[in-house]
Design goal:
The chain is mainly alpha-helical. The chain has a single domain, classed as Serine Threonine Protein Phosphatase 5, Tetratricopeptide repeat. It is 81% helix and 0% strand. α1 runs antiparallel to α2, α2 packs antiparallel against α3 and α4 runs antiparallel to α5. The longest helix has 17 residues. The protein is globular, with a radius of gyration of 14 Å. The relative contact order is 0.11.
């Protein structure tokens, strides 16, 4: 386990539902190639706060990598809806681009 993962895990003990920390931990697992653990933390974020827009793009890309394109498209769609509701057009455009790249 990397030092970064250990530190983030320690911070999460105090607040396991912290979306920023779960997202950071998921990204560390992505870097290590542990898609299963990364997915767990991305999905935990969505369970804790569906409005945490950053999770949708990275979870969608992970789903693409593991051969689940239909699920990735659904995640992108959900993320676009959340980004639009938050008036976060940068994230919306990023999600839309990922969706279109996969769908077409």
């Amino acid at each position: 386990m990397s030092d970064r993962i250990q530190k983030i895990t320690e911070f999460l003990k105090a607040n396991p539902a912290d979306c920023f920390l779960n997202h950071a931990l998921a990204l560390e697992y992505v870097k290590m190639g542990d898609e299963a653990k990364a997915r767990q933390h991305f999905e935990l974020n969505l369970a804790n706060d569906i409005a945490y827009v950053a999770t949708y793009y990275h979870l969608g890309k992970l789903l693409e990598r593991v051969g689940e394109p239909a699920t990735a498209l659904l995640i992108y769609e959900q993320g676009m809806a959340q980004a639009k509701a938050a008036k976060d057009m940068h994230s919306y455009n990023e999600l839309q681009g990922a969706y279109e790249d996969l769908a077409y």
